[in-house]
Amino acid sequence: MYLNNKHFKNVLRLQNIKPEEFDKFERLSSKAVLFSTGSRVLIVYVNTIVFIRNNNIIQLNTDGWKTMTTKKWINYGLSCFTGNDITLYQKKYIWYVVQNDNEPEEYRDNMKIQLED
């Protein structure tokens, strides 16, 4: 299934985000795209904004679609924009986020992570 560019822009509009605000639109796969401008980055996978970076705050979301591919795109954003300091992983069907060498925190939709300066 190939989702066209108009589809991804409509996903943003449904979240009251204007696609025109972004300088860069990069197709990551047939079902995933990256929007970016300055220090603001969004990764959209199918119908869900799975990764948002706004300055020093990252927000993660699955909209309940806890799949291997959703996790892959969240981790793609984390590795690209945090230098592998934050990782999302699964253990015994439970998702966890670990930052640096801190204790893992159980994942929850729309969780926000403050990046260290």
Describe the structure.
The protein has 117 residues and is α+β, with helices and mostly antiparallel strands. It has one domain. It contains two helices and nine strands; from the N terminus they run H-E-E-E-E-E-H-E-E-E-E. The strands form two sheets. Strands 1-2-3-4-5-9 form a six-stranded antiparallel beta sheet, sandwiched between helices. The protein starts with a helix and ends with a strand. The mean pLDDT is 91.
Structural class: alpha+beta
| Content of β-strand | 35-45%
Strand order of the largest sheet: 1-2-3-4-5-9
Per DSSP E runs of 2 or more residues, the count of β-strands stands at: 9
Shape: globular
Mean pLDDT equals 91
Unreliable spans are none
The count of domains is: 1
Tally of DSSP helical segments = 2
Gyration radius (Cα, Å) is 14 Å
Core attributes:
117 residues; single chain; three-stranded antiparallel β-sheet; alpha+beta
Task: Give a brief rundown of this model.
21% of the residues lie in helices and 38% in strands. By secondary structure, the chain is of the alpha+beta class.
List the helices and strands and how they pair.
Layout: H1 5-14, E1 24-27, E2 32-37, E3 40-45, E4 48-54, E5 57-60, H2 68-82, E6 86-91, E7 94-99, E8 105-106, E9 111-114
Antiparallel strand pairs: 1-2, 2-3, 3-4, 4-5, 5-9, 6-7, 7-8
